[in-house]
Write a structure and sequence with these properties.
Bound molecules: 5'-O-[(R)-(carboxyoxy)(hydroxy)phosphoryl]adenosine, zinc ion
Largest sheet: 5 strands, mixed
Distance between the termini: 35 Å
CATH superfamily of the largest domain: ATPase, nucleotide binding domain
Number of strands: 10
CATH topology of the largest domain: Nucleotidyltransferase, domain 5
CATH class of the largest domain: Alpha Beta
Structural class: alpha/beta
Shape: globular
Radius of gyration: 21 Å
Helix content: 40-55%
Number of helices: 9
């Protein structure tokens, strides 16, 4: 007998990307992401504009996802959506759309915790992509979050450490802003860093608890350093951009690696994964891979398209909940604040 085909449509709208994906038994058939360019003009995400753009994007994005998956809406088994955490106005668009679609098709609705989605992206069926074994550690690094999570099972997650101020993505973006680079600056710092000397300038690392992070001091240190240098040479940034970016990136990546090493030591777990938008960073990918022969870790790095906010990760989390018959009821509401261990 052939395996039953479970098709799930997932919707992600927690921040500034509108995304829809279709998954079939763990394999992604489509994963459409509409980025909102409008925020670049403001140097960061403007919540009111984000929610308006989600309203404009959601219908065409869902239509494209279904078209690309080459299925009919009637074949869907369930609708999954991001319940939180995120911007309330943005979450509401995805939540109400998912609710009405599930109701009109008469199929179950499945709520997904966005932070769990980032972690569970590792369980998407992809060729040549091994899945981590439980328990594993996941360093989730994005524009909104920085945390080390112990993952004991699909929906059993515990935060071992997290940032006490800025997220690491913010550290990249705010540093980039000081260097007059456009938002989001993380990918640009990565790009220029590849041509620079990571040891050209030294920035002190913060002193916080073993597995916690702090990035606000680093941003201030960079600001003062640049202001001081520009007093002597107004062209300091343009003349030394590659070296500055490489040094900033080196400091940030070394903070992340130090904390991961502490977590491995503390827990004895050597299965180490990364997730979230900042895991697209080439230096963190390289240094994590090096951890395999340096420290005997087994490392897991998701495919690029599943690192930044996308509905594919919501789809796999939704599919895993579907297998447990873990559905939401119609009264469910969006939650701007939701911790990684909260499943319902
Ligand atoms: O996960 P994500 O798409 O959205 C949030 O949930 O926040 O992460 C976006 C963040 C931004 O701060 C962006 O600058 C950063 O990820 N980012 C990078 C790179 N690509 C994206 N940071 C450093 N290097 C990169 N290559
Ligand atoms: Zn995210």
């Amino acid at each position: 007998m052939s395996e039953q085909q479970i098709y799930i449509l997932a919707i992600e709208s927690s921040c500034d990307d509108t995304s829809a994906a279709v998954i079939c038994n763990g394999k992604i058939l489509s994963n459409i992401v509409a980025n909102q360019k409008i925020h670049a003009e403001y140097g960061g995400v403007v919540p009111e504009l984000a929610s308006r753009a989600h309203q404009q994007n959601i219908v065409p994005v869902v239509q494209q996802a279904i078209l690309k998956a080459n299925i009919d809406k009637k074949q869907l088994s369930a609708i999954a959506f991001t319940r939180g955490p995120g911007l309330m106005g943005s979450l509401l668009v995805g939540t109400s759309f998912a609710k009405s679609l599930a109701l009109s098709l008469g199929i179950p609705l499945i709520d997904v915790n966005h932070m769990q989605g980032h972690v569970l992206a590792h369980f998407i069926d992809e060729e040549n992509t091994p899945k981590p074994a439980f328990p594993f550690l996941c360093l989730t690094i994005s524009g909104g979050h920085t945390q080390i999570v112990k993952v004991s099972n699909y929906f059993e997650m515990e935060v071992l450490g997290e940032t006490i101020d800025d997220a690491v993505g913010e550290a990249f973006d705010k540093s980039a802003k000081i260097l007059n680079l456009p938002y989001p600056g993380g990918p640009l710092i990565d790009k220029y860093a590849q041509l620079g000397n990571p040891k050209a300038y030294k920035f002190t690392k913060p002193k916080v608890n073993k597995m916690d992070f702090s990035f606000s001091g680093l941003k201030t240190a960079i600001l003062y350093f640049i202001q001081k240098q520009e007093k002597e040479n107004p062209n300091f940034v343009t003349e030394n951009l590659n070296d500055i970016c490489a040094s900033i990136q080196d400091t940030i990546v070394s903070i992340l690696l130090d904390k991961l090493k502490n977590a491995v030591k503390e827990t004895g777990i050597k299965e180490v994964a990364i997730a979230g938008g900042v895991s697209a960073n080439s230096e963190i990918r390289k240094q994590l891979k090096e951890g395999e022969f340096k420290y005997g870790w087994k490392t897991y790095i998701p495919k690029f398209e599943y690192t930044t906010d996308n509905a594919g990760m919501i789809a796999i989390a939704g599919y895993l909940k579907y297998l447990q018959n873990n559905y939401a009821d119609a009264s469910i509401s969006a939650q701007a604040r939701l911790k990684v261990h909260q499943t319902n």
